Amino acid sequence: MSLSGEVTLRSSFFVGGDWRPPVVPRPGRLIQEAATGKVLAETPMASEADVDAAVRAARHALEGAWGKTTGAERSQVMRRLADELKARAPQTAALVTRENGTPITTSLPANGYAPGVILKVYAKLAESLDQPDERQGRLATINVRREPVGVVAAITPWNYPQSLAAMKIAPALAAGCTVVLKPSPETALDSYVWADAAEAAGLPPGVLNIVPGERDAGAHLVAHPDVDKVAFTGSTAAGRAIGEVCGRLLRPVTLELGGKSAAIVTEDADLDAFLKALPEHSLANNGQTCHASTRILVARSRYTEFVDAITETVASLRIGDPLELGTQVGPLVSAAQRERVLGYIEDGRRTGARLTTGGGVPPRPGWFVEPTVFADVDNAGRIAREEIFGPVLCVLPYDDEDQAVQIANDSEYGLGGTIWSTDEDRARQLAARIRTGSIGINHYALDPLAPFGGVKASGLGRELGPEGLQPYFALKSVYTKPEAR
Ligand code: NAD
């Protein structure tokens, strides 16, 4: 199969099971191919009226037959949806790669196959929801009903658009909710694969509605009076704004936000294992990965050895067409993102961090930045504190484990992280001391069966795992008077 990432031109939104043209005509978005800058398509951006129509359709479906389905019934349609997504996986992955530059070897699992896997995890959990939860209480016989929380606003970024959508849609459908998905404008095109798959799978109209739009559409959706829950992944700045609105409205919200995670390399670390996994744990998706370990803290006794080896490995990464299987580093998502990343590189140079490789722009069209390493970084500097979201690593030495933990935790964020040590007990003890939502020992693998999310400015709540289902329920306790004794 050729991975061309063919673009289907769309002039409508997917609302109520139909393709509906924009309610009010407004300028669309030109989506440019990240690797070439060529225009892939012009696609409409939702207005408030389009968002209103999507929420109406979602409410209608919730109050109709979908709201009365059993978990087993929902599980069946979710499995069909998973199969439809899987059948489209290679082309979906390639389309995302064209939009945002993710190397195809990453896009295939993350955008192609992960959504189907996540749907199947939650389809299985949906089946268990038909078991009544009866308890004998102190004062009553209690039936705890797990009712769907209602209409879900799912707002996603561009970096892993398909799996991040699945992390919201799958638990929402399992719980019996309906969804309005507002994808990022940069990756509007691939979002409609969900519509094609939903139609083919026979998902009832209105259960999933898709309205790509700019921030104004997202903000309108978050505050919409008929939305019951918001599930957001994106930047910490947008997450704070959304959290404030939801706080005022007392609207449940989950926020998956930014990160600046640390890799701690102990003096007994296996250098080869660290280097082999480096492109994955610290630079995945050209550095546009929220949980990437972008601050590498190395025991002073191994510092020079690691700085030299990291530099050599990063300098040898293959930059190229992200659709080619051998490419390890592709372009960033947009010209604006490239400017932002280059600004951080300039800041690093200006403030005295030692640039050991990269720092420039390869002579190619598209939004490429050379993979870059700064050594001797001060953890108080901007490049160590702020999320760069590009292929830029900071390496810092530490003197003892207490200092490593102190530096790792001296961050606004707490999302991912890794420990590199051949002593697993020691690594587990270190992992327990890091304030973060997830951490890998000698690798990092986000697993659909494990809760994922952040502490501090990295977010609120968890997605994935059985825990990721809980935010989609409204619990209702029904008390029955016990028989008179
Ligand atoms: P962004 O915050 O600019 O946008 C994300 C989405 O939110 C887009 O759909 C955007 O249109 C919408 N949006 C922006 N402001 C909004 C507002 N005020 N109200 C409603 N919607 C709004 O983020 P981005 O640049 O698209 O993505 C990159 C960011 O996402 C990074 O900070 C990254 O760390 C984060 N991210 C986090 C995770 C995680 O699971 N923690 C995963 C992936 C990406």
From TrEMBL:
InterPro entries noted in UniProt: Ald_DH/histidinol_DH, Ald_DH_C, Ald_DH_CS_GLU, Ald_DH_N, Aldehyde_DH_dom
Superkingdom field: Bacteria
Aldehyde dehydrogenase domain location: 34-478
Keywords for this protein: Oxidoreductase
CDD domains according to UniProt: ALDH_AldA-Rv0768 (cd07139)
Family matches, as Pfam families: Aldedh (PF00171)
Record's keyword annotation contains Oxidoreductase: yes
Molecular function per GO: oxidoreductase activity, acting on the aldehyde or oxo group of donors, NAD or NADP as acceptor
Signal peptide limits: none
PANTHER family in alphabetical order: ALDEHYDE DEHYDROGENASE, ALDEHYDE DEHYDROGENASE-RELATED
Family according to the record: Belongs to the aldehyde dehydrogenase family.
Full protein name: Aldehyde dehydrogenase
Native source species: Kineosporia babensis
